[in-house]
């Protein structure tokens, strides 16, 4: 083997062979998280359609369907098109669809694949009328809550809308809701109980052999499990959690049901963003070449997980004392680090490894994401297909 062949064969290391900044996923965390979540839904007798809008990476969605997920959830018809084009033909559009082009696209799916199942939500007479113009499309009636997001504002209104949808010729498949916007699991549990009661009332309108109740969110799905424990035998509960595969170091780490119920399993933060220190212009301040275009910040600023002194593969990771190296601000392409006297030295050329809060708003900043082994060598590159 020639030296050149050897160079090509050796795995690349994220610090020596990759342009920074870069977003990475830890393979061992992905594998563990996918298994933990699938085991959870199977243990509780649920179906799972992970929300692909989190990452819009077909390779990640395929991991979960290969483990037994029913299909995928998306947030728009554009995302449904991307999922369909990558071979996913069981799709829940967890949103209302009123645009004619989107409804026409959904209507054509069964012509292309008789086994396809592409559902969407309705929450108004206008939505029912728009959908009915395109034939007997399969719909879920969405029930929300006062002050929340979409959805009719009471279970009674949901039942009335389901009757209207059935009368208009739509295929009513069940009911859907979203508990993630509520402040905690107790409020979520009460809300889901009301949605379940509406589901029972809608069952006579469902022509399929089983009625579907879909709930979403990665924070309070334990409350969903509690609330639907006494559901009728012919009701399938479909969870839509999207963040469980990658997890995070902030928003969901603070809210995950697995923290409240550790006996059910444990999720690991798979996402890291790596950036090099470019300046340390004054004591207690360092600038890293990572910014708003590279990392999420809508649900909290990034957190420093490690410093790699020297910034090469030979550097041993240093874990700062909590609070000693803190992100205080992000510009478009700069991250401001405030360091305390007990912090490890942070100098130009070092690499800082960040964890994120809210995975949904970091993936959309990257067209390619690296998958790393535990030794930080590159195992794979996955593509995202945001539209």
Automatic annotation (TrEMBL):
One example GO MF annotation: lyase activity
Q: Which residues form the D-serine dehydratase-like domain?
A: 270-373
Please give the superkingdom of this protein's source: Bacteria
Pfam families annotated for this entry?
A: Ala_racemase_N, D-ser_dehydrat
Q: Please provide the record's keywords in A-Z order.
A: Lyase
Extract the PANTHER family matched here. Answer: D-SERINE DEAMINASE (PTHR28004:SF8), ZGC:162816-RELATED (PTHR28004)
Spell out the family assignment given in the record's similarity comment. Belongs to the DSD1 family.
| Protein name as annotated | Amino acid deaminase
């Amino acid at each position: 083997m020639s030296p050149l062949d050897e160079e090509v064969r050796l795995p690349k290391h994220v610090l020596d062979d990759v342009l920074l900044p870069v977003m990475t996923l830890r393979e061992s965390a992905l594998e563990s998280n996918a298994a933990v979540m699938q085991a959870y839904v199977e243990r509780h007798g649920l179906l799972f359609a992970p929300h692909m809008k989190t990452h819009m990476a077909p390779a990640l969605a395929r991991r979960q369907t290969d483990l037994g997920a029913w299909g995928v959830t998306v947030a728009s018809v554009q995302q449904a098109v991307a999922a369909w084009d990558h071979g996913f033909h069981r799709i829940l559009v967890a949103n209302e669809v009123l645009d004619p082009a989107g409804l026409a696209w959904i209507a054509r799916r069964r012509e292309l694949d008789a086994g396809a199942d592409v559902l969407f939500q309705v929450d108004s007479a206008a939505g029912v009328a728009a959908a009915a113009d395109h034939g007997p499309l399969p719909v879920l009636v969405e029930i929300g809550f006062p002050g929340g997001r979409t959805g009719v504002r009471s279970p009674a209104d949901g039942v009335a809308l389901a009757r209207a949808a059935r009368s208009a010729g739509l295929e009513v498949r069940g009911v859907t809701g979203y508990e993630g916007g509520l402040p905690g699991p107790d409020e979520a549990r009460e809300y889901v109980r009301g949605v379940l009661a509406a589901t029972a009332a809608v069952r006579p309108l469902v022509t399929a052999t089983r009625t579907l109740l879909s709930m979403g969110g990665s924070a309070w799905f334990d409350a969903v499990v509690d609330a639907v424990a006494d559901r009728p035998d012919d009701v399938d509960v479909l969870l839509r959690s999207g963040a469980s595969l990658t997890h995070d170091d902030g928003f969901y780490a603070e809210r995950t049901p697995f923290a409240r119920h550790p006996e059910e399993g444990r999720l690991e933060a798979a996402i890291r963003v790596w950036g090099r220190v470019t300046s340390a212009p004054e004591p207690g301040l360092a600038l890293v070449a990572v910014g708003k275009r590279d990392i999420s910040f809508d649900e909290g600023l990034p957190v420093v997980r490690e410093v790699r002194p020297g910034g090469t593969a030979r550097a041993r990771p240093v874990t700062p004392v909590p609070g000693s190296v803190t992100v205080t601000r992000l510009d478009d392409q700069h991250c401001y680090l405030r360091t305390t006297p007990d912090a490890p030295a942070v100098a130009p050329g070092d690499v800082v490894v960040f964890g994120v809060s809210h995975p949904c708003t970091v993936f959309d900043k990257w067209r390619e994401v690296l998958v790393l082994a535990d030794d930080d060598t590159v195992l794979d590159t996955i593509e995202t297909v945001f539209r």
